[in-house]
Amino acid sequence: MSNRILGLERPDNEPIYNYEPGSKRRKEVKRQLKKMKEEFLEIPVVIGGKEIKTDNTAEIKCPHDHSTVLGQYHKADEELVQQAIENSMEAKAEWASMDWEDRVAIFDRAAALLAGPWRAKINAATMLAQSKNIFQAEIDAACELIDFFRFNNYYLSQIYQDQPASSETEINKMEYRPLEGFVFAVPPFNFTSIGGNLPSAPAVCGNTVLWKPASTAVYSNYLIFKLLEEAGLPAGVINFIPGSGREIGPEVIADSRLAGIHFTGSTATFQYMWEEVGRNIKNYDSYPRIVGETGGKDFVFAHKSADPEALITALVRGAFEYQGQKCSAASRAYIPHELWDEISEDLIQQVEDLKVGPVEDFTNFINAVIDHKAFKDITEYIDHARESADAKILAGGEYDDSNGFYIDPTIVLAEEPDYKTMVEEIFGPVLTIYLYDSEEYEETLKLCDNTSPYGLTGAIFSKDREATVKARETLVQAAGNFYINDKPTGAVVGRQPFGGARASGTNDKAGSKLNLYRWISPRTIKENLVPPKDYSYPFMEDK
Ligand SMILES: NC(=O)c1ccc[n+]([C@@H]2O[C@H](COP(=O)([O-])OP(=O)(O)OC[C@H]3O[C@@H](n4cnc5c(N)ncnc54)[C@H](O)[C@@H]3O)[C@@H](O)[C@H]2O)c1
Ligand SMILES: N[C@@H](CCC=O)C(=O)O
Prior knowledge:
Blueprint: H1 24-38, E1 41-43, E2 45-47, E3 50-52, E4 57-62, E5 65-74, H2 78-97, H3 100-115, H4 119-130, H5 134-161, E6 170-178, E7 182-186, H6 192-204, E8 208-211, H7 218-230, E9 238-240, H8 245-253, E10 258-264, H9 267-279, E11 289-293, E12 298-302, H10 308-320, E13 330-336, H11 337-353, H12 372-387, E14 391-395, E15 399-400, E16 406-407, E17 410-414, H13 420-423, E18 430-436, H14 441-451, E19 454-455, E20 457-461, H15 465-474, E21 481-484, E22 501-502, H16 513-517, E23 520-528
Parallel strand pairs: 1-5, 7-8, 7-10, 8-9, 10-11, 12-13, 12-20, 13-18, 17-18, 20-21
Antiparallel strand pairs: 2-3, 4-5, 6-23, 14-17, 15-16, 19-22
Helix pairs in contact: 1-4, 2-8, 3-5, 4-5, 4-7, 5-6, 10-11
Bound molecules: nicotinamide-adenine-dinucleotide and 5-oxo-L-norvaline.
Protein name: L-glutamate gamma-semialdehyde dehydrogenase
GO biological process, one term: L-proline catabolic process to L-glutamate
InterPro entries: Ald_DH/histidinol_DH (IPR016161), Ald_DH_C (IPR016163), Ald_DH_CS_CYS (IPR016160), Ald_DH_N (IPR016162), Aldehyde_DH_dom (IPR015590), P5CDH/ALDH4A1 (IPR005931), Proline_metab_enzyme (IPR050485)
């Protein structure tokens, strides 16, 4: 990177490592896994750099192994939330006035530390506490978060350079102030990178932030917080307040100085938060910016011309990587009858061959789902499909939570296009397939568009350009990330900016310039170099 004053150079995406057998990197991750399981991590609330322990704690266990306790976290109560808000407001002035080159340098250093000495540790934490295999941890906790840090810096430098025109008689300037107040960052459990990005994107713009991590991802999120401390983030810029969302949320949202919410999680939680903001709207100092990326019911749509092998791979990886716990996961598929006859045997075989087990065995493709609630919710859908006359289970369907929250990757065939599992977000390893008559391609595209309230990701598989264009046009509002001949997951920062509309969120595209604009409040400054000294217009003069 060069020339910070004129603007950072566009960074490259962080390379993804393979962790092949015998490699040094694989050995280091294994060493970290062992160490973390032997140790017990005590996670405090952190306010203004001060670590606070409370008498209200919760255990952190591996989702894939109930007997392994990794540590415990201390929950913030109302009083600590108030302290965190006051501290955020105190830390604000100094942070906002720091040269932006120094602010971005801190996040550049965080990226470099994560790419280097912290990489194995953060990957291992994500593997153990969120039950991600090494490949899924690597693309998330290492690569995507490094990219978020670096690309946010780059985009911010571009925003700062964008200035209005001036002339010989006036100087115009756009000052990109942080928001007035503090920002509340509330991430989901499923991506460590989102945990790190939600507080750091507003922070790099000069805001101070309250970070409430998801209760099932506190372990990795705390390590990211420690990484930011090591990178030089001043105390109080981000305060770390783990605890119950239902208790902390209303307390924070009621504060008149709330300047913004940076949320990713379920549609229901986001709607609740928006309603709370609405209820408090008359109390705020300014209108809080509300950014929320939420649920999805992501589709794969196959035209009869689709490449069968590419389609099978996209369904297997798109639906079942990280146990389908990606907001982008392929969760419903539309396949013409004749193509189904060609692919069904191989698809079912491949899904049944997916190895299920703990993360410590790197040959396992599928690990556990996050917790008991997720296990219960997902298996209820499977049971519904097993008992319904409108559905049939073609693969998987078994589950067992005796040692860990394991659910076999499951394929459901729906007789009706609006069968429950074609419509609702399941957020687990369940793919529902609906077969259609290839003569009814356009009608089925419309059906796909209207079947669910979401609009996050979707894919068309087709070798016929006209059919591809028809899908792209008919499904124009059905997905904020639309893929042609690719799975609907795995967006890369700087290449496929991520987010969706409809019930899937405000579509502010995490890791892009669009997202950063939400965390700044521009002030236009005009300086008149030659102020006029006569109020009258020329045409008012008497001839
Ligand atoms: N669109 C995206 O970019 C994206 C990315 C990842 C996950 N997701 C979505 O996230 C969901 C899964 O994540 P989850 O289970 O962690 O979601 P969730 O809604 O249960 O929790 C998200 C966060 O909100 C907090 N929370 C819960 N109730 C709250 C309240 N009343 N006030 C304040 N905070 C509260 C939780 O503690 C957590 O930190 C899925 O719906 C998935 O589609 C979306
Ligand atoms: N950005 C990720 C999904 C994040 C939500 O879970 C993807 O594109 O697969």
